[in-house]
Amino acid sequence: MRTSFNKTIHSSYGPTRRNFLTGLSKAVSLIGLTILSPTTELKAANARSDRTDLDTWFDKIKGQHKILYDAQSHNNGFQSIWSWVFMESNNETGTPDDDLAVVVVLRHKAAGLALEDKLWKKYKLGKFYDVRDLSAPLPAEKNPYWEPQVGEMPEDGMSIRKLIARGVLFCVCERAIANTSKQIAQSKGLDAVAVKNELMAGILPGIQPVPSGVWAIERAQQHGCAYCFAG
User: Fold this and answer.
1) CA 93 – CA 17 distance, rounded (Å)
2) Contacts with 206 (C-beta within 8 Å, 6 or more apart), sequence order
3) DSSP conformational letter for 146
4) How deeply is 205 buried, as exposed, middle or buried, from its count of CB atoms within 10 A (0-12, 13-18, 19+)?
5) Can you list the alpha helix ranges (DSSP code H) found in the chain?
6) pLDDT digits (tens, 9 = 90+) for 51-74
C-alpha cells in the first residue's frame, strides 16, 4: 500500500513540478528580455541617430559644381590649397560659392590634420606623421594647416578653418584615428581605447568624423562629386 501511495504521489508531482519549472523559466526569460530590450533599443536608436547625422552632413553637398579631394597624407597642405583654388577659379568664371561644393576626406596619414594643437604637442604628431613646421625645419608641434600664420601658405584663405567657414566640408576617417591610437599606445605603454577617445574628442570644430575615408569617398560621389586625388 505504501509503495503504491508513493508511486501515486511521485506520478502526480513530477509533471506538476516540471510544468512549474518550465513556466518559471519562461517567465525569467521574458523578464530578461524586458530588461535587455531598452538597452538594445537604445543602441539601435543611437546607430540610427548617427546615420541620420551623417546623411544630413552629406546632404550639404549641393550646387552645380562639386568636387572631393582624397587626402591620404598632409602633402604640404595641397588638399586645402586646391580647395581654395577650385573655389576662386569658379568665382572668377562666374560661379559663386553658393553653387559650389567641396569635400575634403582626411584619411590614412592625413587624419592628424583634423586634430587640435594640444594633441599634436602631447603625442608628437609632427614626428608621427612626418609633418614639418611651416616656419622652421622641425617636426610640427601644432596642426600647421588649421590656422597658419600669415605668409606660411600661398594665400591667407587657404587655412582649414577659413575654408570651413567658407563652406568647404572636411571629414576625417575614424579608422585612421583608431590606427594612430594603437600605434601611439604601443609606443608609450598606454591604453589604445583611452587614446582613441582622447583623439576623437580633440577633432577640430566643423570637421565631421566618418566610419572610414573610403566610405565617405563613395558617399560623396553618390552625391555627385568629381574625384580628385590630393596626395
Assistant:
1) 86
2) 161, 164, 165, 170
3) T
4) exposed
5) 2-58, 78-92, 117-122, 125-129, 160-166, 174-188, 192-201, 213-222
6) 668 989 999 999 999 999 999 999
Nearest Cα to 209, choosing from 119, 114, 73, 126?
114
In DSSP terms, 136 is beta-bridged to none
CB 40 within 8 A of CB 202: no
Asked if 122 contacts 195 with a C-beta cutoff of 8 angstroms, the reply is no
Using one digit for the tens of pLDDT, what is the confidence trace for 68-109?
999 999 999 999 999 999 999 999 999 999 999 999 999 999
Q: Give the whole-angstrom CA distance, residue 172 versus residue 79.
A: 13
* CA distances for 41 relative to 1, 33, 35, 55, angstroms: 60, 11, 11, 21
